[in-house]
Backbone:
């Protein structure tokens, strides 16, 4: 990778607006060499305004309207069935040609909980245990079909190779899923999983860790992204006005608020990239125009300083992040069991 | 244009709806994961002014169905597929199958509203309750719920989903209100977070022949997707019954009945019959010695066996051990059961082969007539297919059809190029879209809050 990994978390106001605006912002980010978009998702009403469409739906639209940029969606295990989420993420990976990612949302959310009570299910009940059980279960579901299991042999009539599909029979503390999934293994093997660095049980399963303010970043054994909220404009004064108009949100543990002109903002990001263990940034773009401003004003400065290739990346999201394509876990377990038997 | 408008949908099965459709030379064998091809087929349907593309679903996979029903093994998830189609088209509706038995009303309302927004009002929900017991095991349940419980659950889901769509804010954020639903199965505060769908309520499809299904369809659905019926009389009864039930809810003009239809069409009758024969010849038959192998665990493979043993059961005569290409003796055919006789008439209708004519029914024909049929099939030249469509449309059987292409994309092209122009010339089907939303195509107003 040349320079830090850049992930745009698009602002809700943009995502709740017309499709054309979302597609345009994604296209600009892609052309400027941004690695991935992060689409937030929270199934609860926002007071006084309409929320964006569900992230998986927006991501599917962007998958066919862009070519290279990664598409990471938020989803909380508390509000999904594992079989449903596994196939949604796998579908996004197929439709995008291997650009799907999932950021696990784990925190308590009483307002969203209040929309999802069923006779046999209370979202708050086993939230932590369920959230921890989800990621490895999803990996296993994606592995129920081995690569190449769909053979599609027109001449013989063999559609699949039955030896390369497996029942899972997962029985865990909170979840039971028999499998197999009704979907071919995703192009990336497993869509990229992102998790908060501060949640050890989730972090252990993640491919990429997301931490808060860059200054507090602690070195990790896998790609690590800091979280930055940039208010940027042609002049530092105008940037301060934007920040003030947005209610002057402060930096905190969860993110660093960065306000300044393009040179200041790019300089601070470059400094963090050089001096902290971070491999890149999740840029929480706070305003409808923030994506365009960051792309037009800050990225050229980063490029000039050698901190952004400026060229659109190629390959799957895993390849862009330097992550290996995972081997099939079920096939590996069966091979181990077979070796022990013989 | 006649007073009523004919409606046409495209049932998208990546393998084609014929079990060997994917093996045809004009088929893409791996269409399930080729989103570019799925989009192109959808654009083809849009150029032909179809009302919608229909995406079925199944929440389980059974590899044992690879020869009898390969479409049931795998597919892309419908919401994302529908979005990818909508992003590549401008008018055609996109129908997502979603099963409330394995989801919750807030998620369904939100995903469908999202699709309706990003497609500018072209989304529909095909509500199914799941006849497939295998799905239960993928969702933490030991057993499949019975019909009564599934419909109780589905009806409450529908009420909550409708209330959520009505609770949603306008795009400017105004007008949202909580629903505070406290029902038998769900507790949902609301309001919906995303804006109210452009169509007000996303269009609802429902299928089914049971009393509960008919009642749900008549009361709550905009389109009833009619499954196969054994006789024309049964189809007519179904149509009249749905309309009568809908009338009791004051909705007689608000429920369209659309049966499935598999057209095997070619420029001449002889070519169409040859195409039908060719598709059947590509089928891999089930081994004779493994009766019951496919019918396992009550999966939906039931009724899909194809071999001479099964044919013997269905026709009530022992035809085992014969050459599939050989003509069946008239005395054997004279001894078939009542159900067998009905199927012999079907064989003649499809293949033009008869019990005693110069071109005689073969053992292979009996085998191919054995599994349960997915939809009504018509084999013929363009005029013959258009005649059948017109007859059903004008004689109280159908308001239109969900077209099942036997193979993809070839059979879609054949229907849109050969049959649709005839339907347009006859004034039965639109030459241009009259509006932009699926409700516009179906002639249905946006419901008030």
Residues:
């Amino acid at each position: 990778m040349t320079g830090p990994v850049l992930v745009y978390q698009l602002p809700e106001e943009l995502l709740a607006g017309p499709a054309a605006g979302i597609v345009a912002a994604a296209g600009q980010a892609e052309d400027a060499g941004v690695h991935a978009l992060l689409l937030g998702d929270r199934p609860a009403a926002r007071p006084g305004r309409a929320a964006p469409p569900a992230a998986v739906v927006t991501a599917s639209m962007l998958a066919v309207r862009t070519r290279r940029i990664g598409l990471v969606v938020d989803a909380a295990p508390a509000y999904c069935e594992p079989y449903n989420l596994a196939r949604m993420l796998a579908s996004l990976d197929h439709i995008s040609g291997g650009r799907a990612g999932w950021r696990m949302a784990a925190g308590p959310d009483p307002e969203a909980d209040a929309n999802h009570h069923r006779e046999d299910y209370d979202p708050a009940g086993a939230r932590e245990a369920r959230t921890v059980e989800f990621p490895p279960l999803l990996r296993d579901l994606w592995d129920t079909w081995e690569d190449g299991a769909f053979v599609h042999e027109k001449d013989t009539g063999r559609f699949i190779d039955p030896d390369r599909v497996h029942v899972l029979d997962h029985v865990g503390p909170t979840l039971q899923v028999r499998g197999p999934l009704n979907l071919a293994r995703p192009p990336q093997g497993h869509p990229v999983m992102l998790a908060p660095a501060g949640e050890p049980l989730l972090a252990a399963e993640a491919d990429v860790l997301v931490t808060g303010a860059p200054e507090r970043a602690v070195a990790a054994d896998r790609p690590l992204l800091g979280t930055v909220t940039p208010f940027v404009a042609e002049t530092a004064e105008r940037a301060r006005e934007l920040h003030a108009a947005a209610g002057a949100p402060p930096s905190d543990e969860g993110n660093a608020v960065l306000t300044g002109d393009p040179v200041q903002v790019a300089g601070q990001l470059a400094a963090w990239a050089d001096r902290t263990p971070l491999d890149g940034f999740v840029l929480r773009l706070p305003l409808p125009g923030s994506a365009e401003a960051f792309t037009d004003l800050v990225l050229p400065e980063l490029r000039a300083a050698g901190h952004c290739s400026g060229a659109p990346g190629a390959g799957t999201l895993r390849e862009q992040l330097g992550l290996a394509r995972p081997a099939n876990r079920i096939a590996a377990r069966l091979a181990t069991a077979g070796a022990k038997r013989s | 244009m006649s007073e009523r408008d004919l409606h046409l949908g495209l049932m998208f099965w990546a393998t084609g709806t014929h079990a060997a459709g994917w093996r045809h030379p004009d088929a893409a064998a791996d269409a399930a994961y080729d989103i570019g091809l799925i989009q192109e087929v959808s654009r083809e349907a849009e150029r032909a002014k179809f009302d919608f593309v229909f995406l079925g679903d199944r929440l389980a996979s059974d590899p044992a169905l690879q020869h009898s029903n390969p479409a049931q093994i795998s597919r892309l998830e419908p919401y994302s597929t529908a979005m990818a189609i909508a992003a590549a088209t401008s008018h055609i509706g996109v129908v997502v199958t979603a099963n409330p038995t394995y989801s919750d009303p807030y998620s369904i309302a939100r995903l469908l509203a999202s699709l309706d927004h990003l497609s500018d009002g072209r989304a529909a929900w095909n509500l199914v309750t799941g006849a497939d017991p295998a799905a239960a095991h993928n969702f933490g349940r030991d057993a499949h719920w019975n019909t009564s419980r599934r419909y109780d659950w589905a009806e409450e889901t529908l009420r909550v989903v409708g209330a959520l769509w009505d609770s949603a804010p306008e795009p400017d954020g105004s007008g949202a209100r909580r629903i505070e639903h406290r029902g038998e199965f769900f507790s949902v505060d609301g309001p919906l977070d995303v804006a109210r769908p452009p169509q007000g309520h996303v269009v609802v499809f429902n299928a089914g022949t049971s009393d509960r299904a008919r009642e749900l369809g008549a009361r709550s659905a905009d389109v009833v997707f009619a499954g196969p019926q054994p006789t024309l009389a049964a189809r007519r009864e179904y149509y009249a019954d749905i309309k009568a039930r809908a009338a009791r809810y004051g909705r007689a003009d608000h429920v369209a009945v659309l049966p499935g239809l598999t057209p095997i069409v070619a420029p001449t009758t002889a070519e169409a019959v040859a195409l039908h024969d060719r598709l059947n010849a590509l089928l891999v038959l089930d081994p004779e010695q493994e009766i019951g192998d496919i019918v396992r665990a009550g999966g939906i493979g039931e009724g899909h066996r194809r071999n001479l043993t099964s044919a013997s059961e269905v026709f009530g005569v022992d035809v085992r051990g014969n050459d599939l290409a050989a003509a069946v003796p008239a005395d054997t055919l004279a001894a078939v059961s009542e159900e067998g006789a009905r199927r012999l008439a079907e064989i003649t209708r499809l293949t033009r082969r008869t019990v005693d004519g110069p071109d005689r029914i073969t053992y292979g024909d009996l085998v191919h007539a054995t599994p349960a049929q997915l939809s009504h099939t018509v084999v013929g030249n363009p005029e013959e297919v258009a005649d059948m469509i017109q007859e059903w449309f004008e004689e109280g059987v159908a308001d239109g059809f969900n077209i099942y292409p036997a193979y993809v994309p070839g059979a879609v092209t054949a229907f849109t190029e050969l049959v649709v122009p005839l339907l347009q010339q006859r004034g039965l089907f639109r030459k241009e879209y009259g509006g932009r939303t699926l409700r516009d195509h179906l002639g249905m107003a946006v419901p008030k809050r």
User: Anything to note?
Assistant: Chain B touches chain A through 72 residues (CB under 8 Å).
